[in-house]
Amino acid sequence: MAVLASQAPIFYAENGCAELSNYLRASKPSMIFVLVDSNTHNNCLNIFLQQLETTITIEVIEMEAGEEHKNIETCSGIWETLSELGADRKSLLINLGGGVVTDLGGFVASTFKRGISYINVPTSLLAMVDASVGGKCGVDLGNLKNQIGVINQPEMVLIDSNYLSTLPANEMRSGLAEILKHGLIANEAYWEKATNLEALTLEDLDSLIIESIEIKSRIVQEDPTEKSVRKTLNYGHTLGHAIESYFLTNPNKITLLHGEAVAAGMIMATHLSYKICGFPEKKLENITNKINELFPKINLLEEDYEVVLDLLKFDKKNSHGNINFVLLKDIGKAELDVIVPNDQLIEAMNYYLKN
Asked: What CATH number should be reported for the domain whose range is 2-167?
């Protein structure tokens, strides 16, 4: 089964192996490079290589794991390695890893020799339902998230939930945040399904992943370059990214996983939605309770507010000096480009801390 995310077909489970083999036979890349990080090198690479049917030369390139390595210096090292190993414009880069690997690997491929083909094989829940789909590639600039990048589609995305067995619980939770976001911006039935985890089986998880990808794919198909409806995919990310950036470089804070920051950001965004767009109060309470049940409270203090608010000016949705938020009138009903005054941002952070 394939789902189109703009131009990139997405294949599931064993179909992915067959489609990859077909692609390699048809496109005949000069060489195949597999980008991994230290975790996926140990846990996923052998599984992937055993499924790869080809006589084309394969080289493995390893980067350090973690958001702190998602930068231009890491890209430079990979570009140099590609050059040294003889990569040309007909080479193929396969990104085997979580969101950092697929984001950075897509950017490396899109810029090396003005662009070589790449394929994403996400191995984390976050990468499966979000980072690997939609063609956004990029790196951080210092502690500022995804400031440098391009939108360029992979040749295909291969989704295999068997890789999730290698993930620790906090990484699974991180991916769940994006699934919950898709529920909030798309429809209430999916939100209810995604938060009813007591009844969740592995088969249900596969179904949730597919539906989450379909939600994102439909939005990307409609608005590939984020002029309008694709902005809804940033729900909870404006404050979430600012908090994540702040925690990344503050020595007194524990670095947050992306989903942990976004979970907090979604509670704050829903409070803003209630205050500004008339989002139903009962649903705000339900969303707050559900997210707090699933995610540990982050160590945000009132003295952190000023720095977090200052980081908002680097958000990529901003224009003409305005900080633009995606808010909700109701579940599945978004309001784009909402300008929020500072006093309401502080109120939203206070709400998060006290609930």
From this structure: 3.40.50.1970
